[in-house]
Structures are given as structure tokens and as C-alpha cells.
Amino acid sequence: MTGPLVLGIETSCDETGIGIVRGRQLLSNTIASSMDEHARYGGVVPEVAARAHLEALQPSIERALTEAGVTLDDLDAVAVTSGPGLAGALMVGVGAAKGLAVSLGKPLYAVNHLVGHIAADILTSDDRATAPLEYPTIALLVSGGHTSLLHVRDLTTDVELLGETVDDAAGEAFDKVARLLGLPYPGGPQIDIASADGDPRAIRFPRGLSKASDMAKHRYDFSFSGLKTAVARWVERAEAAGEQVPVADVAASFREAVIDVLVTKALAACEDRGVPRLLLGGGVIANRRLREVALERAAAAGVAVRIPPLSLCTDNGAMIAGLAAELIANGRGPSTLGFGADSTLPVTEIQVSPA
Amino acid sequence: MILAVDTSLGTTVAVVDADGRTLAEASTPDPLGHAEVIGDLLAQVVRPGITHVVAGMGPGPFTGLRIGIAAARAFALGRGAPLIPIPSHFAIALDASADGPFAVVTDARRREIAVSVFDGVDADGIPALVRPTRLEKRGVELDEPVHETTELSAAALARVGARAIAAGRVLADAEPLYLRSPDVVQPGAPKRVSS
Ligand SMILES: [Zn+2]
């Protein structure tokens, strides 16, 4: 298998990701996370994340090169996430990518992080030879930073945003509810553990933006802050009544509410758009219950589900390199050097500042 | 041949030869937009034969400061060249003409200034830092004559770097001169939502 050799740099949140691909073949996926440093704050602290990126970048690049068995001179291009994400964190990656590309005299591709999550699915490795991603597909991307529903007609030219969260990302909701229940950060895995013996139907928590009256404007949008408040209120009421809070039931019921609304809206998009394919991505896909419910309900709806390996679902540089390799394979030229970090980069901007 | 990069104030890059002569310099005094301009400025000065890369380590507003350091490190990695970290105030001190001790002052935001006191140059030709860099409230009375600036020259930074290399001296840590911790507060108990 051949194709352009690309090194991708991803610093949009708390993972410093360096990936190397040759065309669609994954050669290295190196991730340094500052998650532990954020734990005591209960969420990602942008300044802490940016400092950690600066420290981790060089060793991560060196590690990725070693793992891939290539040198910087071998590279055909450098790729970097321009957005969306945390501005100060993105800028560290942008600065490094520009320094590296100019130093090597190699073309630089600035790309969209969310579209990168979709590109994760086309990467193959020795232990993973996947059938090619079929178009069109609906994509549901869920993480601590984003919750987006996309209609992907072509990875490099045509991605449409159907909806996104209007307040908290789903991953953030997990973190906040975990804290409310006295569980540590990050909340996702903790809620999962706590839910193990809980009844997901014990408490009927609200499904955000799911009422008939929300459908006209927010059919594919998500909202989790009301759900978080509902959980807080339920817990406070139980405490005020002197009851012991049934943490397992609360956690399981909360998790079910999040998953229900994610899967319902994703499958509604599949049906409305006549697209029998759903791609899942983002760190929250690590949640086993989410995968279970999605697979079960998609099967019932006749929708085929694709889930990249977990190491490619969380933020990583390989997906950024992979997207750039696809752009190159489709004859697209590099980005001009004047781009910056765009914390709210729209998903329609797949490549930033093409020549 | 030394490439120097600094984004502690504006964005400035320069290449000087082993004798300290400026071969190329490209700058903008804009205190914002470092991420946007750094690539084009580097492309203007880049050339074969760069043996060392000097990074201005601040002090400076963190978000911008990091961009230059990240770019300098990555550039050095790309050329297999050593990275020489130099505190940015040394470049300002080298270009300042003063008799006796003087204070290099740059804005540190939040109504504070970053202050480094220098007194001439030492035997290696490197500005002599006589009081470590610190933060002060803006408006405070300093003991020394003040040399305040919003710009610095990467060529001067490169020359300080050249002298440090020649003397085998290390003038800065590998980490930026942040002077401030990330100001985050640890969360207290969750706020009540019921009234
Ligand atoms: Zn992401």
C-alpha cells in the first residue's frame, strides 16, 4: 500500500497527538495526555492544557518517528488541527507545525478536527483491514469538547453540520454529574462503573431538545445542561428528605438519558436523510453502554454502524494525518502559511486556507 | 549560522552568522496574531546552513509566547540543530545603551510589568543580569532607570545566543519564563440548584 507519508499534529484539547500515516495506512498514533493534571479541577483547564502541549510536542514527535520507522526527511507533508478546539492549545500545535514545515521545506495542511474524527475510520493497520468507508454516512461525534451530528457525503469536499450541542458537550455532562455524585474526574468511566448495578429506568430524567416543540428549530441539536440540573435537583431533594442517594440508579438513569437522546437523534438523521449508515467517533464512544444501545437500535432500524478502534476515537494526530493524506490523494494543494487557530472552525471548512 | 525566534511581544525572527552579522530579519510589532504570522516570517528568513536555533523564552503573555517556542523547537528538530533557550529580556538589554544598572520592563498584562535589572555586559559579552526577572504592579517606583519597550529584535536575541554558545553557558531553562501559575481555582462543593 502506498500514498503520501504525512505527520499529523493535534492539540485541540488535552491530548497531544502525533500520528504518522502512509496514505490510509496507520504507522504511528502517539498520544500524551494531560488528563491527570486536570483531574483536581474537575475539567480541562485551557492554560494547563496549553502548557502541557508545549512540553509534550517534541518528545511525542520523536516517539512517533521511531515507532513508524521513518525520518522527518522522509515525510511528504505535515498536517495540523486548525480548529475547532481550545484556542491557546490549538496555537501550540499550529506554531510547531509551521516551524517544522518551514524547517523541512515540506507542504503543510491545516485541517478541521471534527472531519479528522471521520477520517479516523479510513485508517488501516496490520491488525485492522477495514472495508472502505461508504458515502454518504451520518456521523455522531461525542467527546468532552464536542457533540456533533454530521451528514458526510464526501470526506474531503462535502460535510454538513446537522446539529450540535447548544450548551455542554456530552462528555462535560458526564464530568459534571460525576462530580455531583462525588465521583472523580473524568466522569465517563466513573459513571459507567457506578451504573453497573443501577436501574437505567429507575428515574426518568429529561431528554434535552426532544419535545415536539423543539423539533422545528433543534431537531438535530443537543442540550445537556438541563439534564445536569435535573440530576442535581433530584439528588438535593433526596438529601433534603433524609434519603440515601441511590448513586447506581441515578448514574444509570442519567447515562441512559444521555445515550437515548444521542442515539435517537442520530438515527432520526439517518432516516430523514435516507442514509443507512452511522459512524461513531469521539472519546465518549468508549462508553460501552452507548455502543450497545447504538448497535442494537441501529440494527433494528436497518442502519449499519461503524466504530473506529478506541485509540482512534479519542483525539489523536493520526486522524489529522489521515485527513491530510486523503486531501493530497485527491489532488489538493497545501494550505498557505497565514492560517491561525480557529476555536469555532465550521465543519464545512475541511481544509483551512487552501492555496 | 543562528536562527532566532521570539513571540514574547510581537513576532520576530532573524538569522545571524557566526560573527553576529544579521543576514535576514522579519518582524511585526503586533502583540497578537503570532500563530498567523510565524510561518510566513520564518519562510522569509529560512536558508540552508542554520546550525543553532535560539528561542526567546519570555517573559510575555503565555498564549503568544508559546507559539514562538513551539515553532523554534520544531524548526530545530527539523534541522537536527540544538535549541538554545534565551530569556527575551537579554535581547532588549543587549540593544539598550545605559551606564550603570537599568531595568528592562515589558508589559505582563493584568496591570503588571515584568522587570529584569541588568548592569552592562559580562566578560562573555552577555548582558549581566543583576536581579532576577520578576513581576511588579504597574506604576511601582523602581530603583533603576527604566527601559520599557513593546518590541525586541530577534537579531539581538541571536547575538546573545551566539555569545552563550561560544561561552558554553546556559541562560534559561527549557521551560518558558511564565512567572505566574495557571490561575485556576479548585472547585468547591457543587453549587445547589434548588431554591
Ligand atoms: Zn475531538
Q: What structural category do the secondary elements of chain A indicate?
A: alpha/beta
Helix percentage of chain A: 40-55%
The N- and C-terminal alpha carbons of chain A lie at a distance of: 28 Å
CATH-derived topology of the domain at 2-96 and 151-167 in chain B: Nucleotidyltransferase, domain 5
Strand/helix succession of chain B? EEEHEHEHEEEEH
List the uncertain runs of chain A: none
Strand order of the largest sheet of chain B: 3-2-1-4-5
* CATH-level-4 superfamily name of the domain at 2-96 and 151-167 in chain B: ATPase, nucleotide binding domain
InterPro entries (chain B): ATPase_NBD (IPR043129), Gcp-like_dom (IPR000905), T6A_TsaB (IPR022496)
Organism (chain B): Microbacterium commune
Pfam families (chain B): TsaD
Domain Gcp-like (chain B): 48-116
Task: Outline the fold blueprint.
The complex is a heterodimer of chains A (355) and B (195).
Chain A (H helix, E strand, L loop, with lengths): L4 E6 L4 E8 L2 E9 L1 H5 L6 H23 L8 E7 L3 H18 L3 E5 H7 L17 E6 L4 E8 L3 E7 L5 H11 L6 H9 L19 H4 L6 H16 L6 H27 L3 E5 L6 H14 L2 E3 L3 H4 L3 H13 L21 E2 L3
Parallel strand pairs in A: 1-4, 4-5, 6-9, 9-10
Antiparallel strand pairs in A: 1-2, 2-3, 5-11, 6-7, 7-8
Chain B lengths: L1 E5 L4 E6 L5 E7 L5 H12 L6 E5 L5 H18 L3 E4 L1 H8 L6 E6 L4 E10 L5 E11 L8 E3 L5 H14 L28
Bound molecules: zinc ion.
The site of zinc ion (ZN) has 7 residues of chain A, from helix 4.
Q: Can you offer a commentary on this structure?
A:
The complex is a heterodimer of chains A (355) and B (195). With 355 residues, chain A is α/β, with parallel strands linked by helices. In chain A, 43% of the residues lie in helices and 19% in strands. Chain A is built from 12 helices and 11 strands. Chain A has helices at residues 35-39, 46-68, 87-104, 113-119, 170-180, 187-195, 215-218, 225-240, 247-273, 288-301, 310-313, 317-329; strands at 5-10, 15-22, 25-33, 77-83, 108-112, 137-142, 147-154, 158-164, 277-281, 304-306, 351-352. In chain A, the strands form 2 sheets. In chain A, strands 3-2-1-4-5-11 form a 6-stranded mixed beta sheet, sandwiched between helices. A 5-stranded mixed beta sheet of chain A has the order 8-7-6-9-10, sandwiched between helices. In chain A, α5 (170-180) packs parallel to α8 (225-240), α5 packs antiparallel against α9 and α8 (225-240) packs antiparallel against α9 (247-273). Chain A is globular. The relative contact order of chain A is 0.19. Chain B is built from 4 helices and 9 strands. Chain B has helices at residues 34-45, 62-79, 88-95, 154-167, and strands spanning 2-6, 11-16, 22-28, 52-56, 83-86, 102-107, 112-121, 127-137, 146-148. A 5-stranded mixed beta sheet of chain B has the order 3-2-1-4-5, sandwiched between helices. Chain B has a 4-stranded mixed beta sheet with strand order 8-7-6-9. The mean pLDDT of chain B is 95. Chains A and B meet through α2, α3 and α8 of A and α1 and α2 of B. The complex binds zinc ion. Zinc ion is lined by residues 113, 117, 143, 145-146, 282, 315 of chain A. Zinc ion (ZN) is lined by residues 113, 117, 143, 145-146, 282, 315 of chain A.
